[in-house]
UniProtKB/TrEMBL annotation:
CDD domains: fer2 (cd00207)
UniProt organism field: Brevundimonas vitisensis
Domain spans labelled 2Fe-2S ferredoxin-type: 1-104
Protein name from the UniProt record: (2Fe-2S)-binding protein
Statement: the UniProt record of this protein carries the keyword Transport: no
Family recorded in the similarity comment: Belongs to the adrenodoxin/putidaredoxin family.
Domain of life (superkingdom): Bacteria
Cofactor: [2Fe-2S] cluster
UniProt xrefs under InterPro entries: 2Fe-2S_ferredoxin-like_sf, 2Fe-2S_ferredoxin-type, Adrenodoxin-like, Adrenodoxin_Fe-S_BS, Beta-grasp_dom_sf
Length: 105
């Protein structure tokens, strides 16, 4: 699926991410800066925080209770905040746009 990552400064990175990987892994494997992922995808660090574009919020699904409580540690949390290691890439997310927060800039 094609995913567009937009850094805090506006730089866009469009990459093709294999279904089954997480949105976080898609960024790391393609050297997209702005996602730190200190815990390696265990939903335990909140440094993979992204803002999901409104048009894809439904397709990306809702945060789990564990993810919600981890998001409390992220800065500037918005209603469309997600931890990108918890978003599984699928064909339904083709064209997904995520914006990266200033704290991971
Ligand atoms: Fe640590 Fe997502 S990589 S919470």
């Amino acid at each position: 699926a094609k995913i567009t990552y937009i850094e805090f400064d506006g730089s866009e990175h469009v990459v093709d991410v294999k279904p089954g990987l997480s949105v976080m892994e898609g960024a790391i494997r393609n050297n997209v800066p702005g996602i730190d992922a200190d815990c390696g995808g265990a939903c335990a660090c909140a440094t993979c925080h992204v803002y999901v574009d409104e048009a894809f919020q439904e397709a990306a699904g809702k945060a789990s209770a564990m993810e919600e409580s981890m998001l409390d540690f992220a800065e500037n949390v918005q209603p469309n905040s997600r931890l990108s290691c918890q978003i599984r890439v699928s064909d339904a997310l083709d064209g997904l746009i995520v914006r990266l927060p200033e704290s991971q800039h």
